[in-house]
């Protein structure tokens, strides 16, 4: 089913516009909340993905977070320069780079669950519990292939 046509499409009334604007708003608010830690919301995603054991290589991170490999390399360089992660070559396959959080990276990542939910909850405060569940359900449906 087509929801948009040439005649009814309006940029500012499109779902894509609203999702992009919501994303930009959240990124700005999370970046502000993380400023004192010296990391960005994108870097936060990397640290939390690694801390949770979800990912261990740059390729896995790129795929999970939807970030191209060039940008991922630059972000990993910055996190490594800050002493938050280390890279090492796989012993089984020298083409594979493994990532590990340093002690400092683990400590910083452990603080994130105390900060980020505050930002998200402030943005979601007007939602009922059922509206929140429905929003989450619909967003994941939108992301399906």
Automatic annotation (TrEMBL):
Pfam families: MarR. Residues 8-144 form the HTH marR-type domain. PROSITE patterns: HTH_MARR_2. The keyword Transcription applies. GO terms for molecular function: DNA binding; DNA-binding transcription factor activity. Keywords: DNA-binding, Transcription, Transcription regulation. This is MFS transporter. It comes from Caballeronia glathei.
